[in-house]
Design goal:
Low-confidence stretches: none
CATH superfamily: Alpha/Beta hydrolase fold, catalytic domain
Order of helices and strands: HEEHEHEHEHHHHEHEHH
Radius of gyration: 17 Å
Shape: globular
Number of helices: 11
Oligomer: single chain
Distance between the termini: 30 Å
Length: 260
């Protein structure tokens, strides 16, 4: 089963193979592993990243968040069979970590740090009528496309004065997502309810990071995470949006490195 999963996933590793700790970085919905480029380059030890199904260079279409957790388990089995693990998830990536905790809590015996970046444990908004209508058309597209056209729209997911190159990069990633994954995972986000799974992280050093101007997973969602994990460090970035790995890559890397 693991080999079948890994056959369709684009996995990239970097850093020393002899390191006793590996950071596994999970990107958000409509993004890809390059979201973490600047963060990964600043981390000590070994780093593993991969494109979620239907995103970036990975094959496959839509999947449930539970199935994305299965993919993460397969990546850990193949690429991090031994040693300590630090899991860092941005948005959908953080939700995938929660789903793994719900389904495979035994795997967290080797997890010595978790970073939950601009994410949520549930109660995200339902699809609007416009989204449902657009979804019927988008789901048929091999790729969403229109990267240049959607660049201005992606600007709203960033905070104050972002690098315009980062906004363009985010739009290009969204455009390279398959229509099936774009639509299917958007609906999955509305079904995500995993507050109870956070109990698995209770004794693991954890940092919760939030942008005060995040419009996709507003800061109240991060406050719920922090309340459920009273031992976690809670970091708020004023005037920063949803794209923390791009907007505050240096500080995000520093905080993940501290967990390593």
């Amino acid at each position: 089963m693991a080999s079948l999963v890994l056959d369709r996933l684009n996995v990239v590793t970097s850093g020393s193979s002899s390191s006793g700790v590996t950071a596994v970085l999970l990107h958000g919905w409509t993004m890809d592993l390059t979201t973490w480029d600047r963060v990964a380059a600043s981390l000590p030890g070994r780093v593993v990243r991969y494109d979620v199904r239907g995103h970036g260079l990975s094959g496959g279409g839509t999947a449930t968040i539970s199935e994305l957790a299965d993919d993460l388990a397969a990546v850990l089995e193949e690429h991090v069979p031994t040693g300590r693990i630090v899991l860092a998830g941005h948005s959908l990536g953080g939700m995938t970590i929660m789903a793994l905790a719900e389904q495979r809590p035994e795997l967290f015996s080797r997890v010595t740090g978790v970073a939950l970046v601009a994410t949520s444990c549930g109660n995200l908004p339902r699809l609007s009528r416009v989204e449902r209508l657009a979804g019927k058309w988008l789901v048929k597209r091999p790729k969403v496309g229109f990267g240049r056209l959607i660049t201005p729209g992606l600007r709203v997911t960033f905070g104050h004065r972002p690098r315009w190159a980062d906004v363009r990069a985010a739009a290009a990633m969204a455009g390279a997502t398959t229509g099936e994954a774009f639509v299917g995972i958007r609906e999955e986000l509305t079904l995500h309810q995993r507050r109870e799974a956070l109990a698995v992280l209770a004794d693991i050093p954890t940092v919760v990071m939030a942008g005060s101007w995040d419009v996709l997973t507003p800061m109240r969602h991060s406050r719920v995470l922090a309340d459920a994990l009273p031992g976690a460090e809670f970091v708020i970035y004023p005037k920063v949006g949803h794209m923390l790995p791009l907007e505050r890559s240096e500080d995000v890397a520093r905080r993940i490195a501290a967990l390593m």
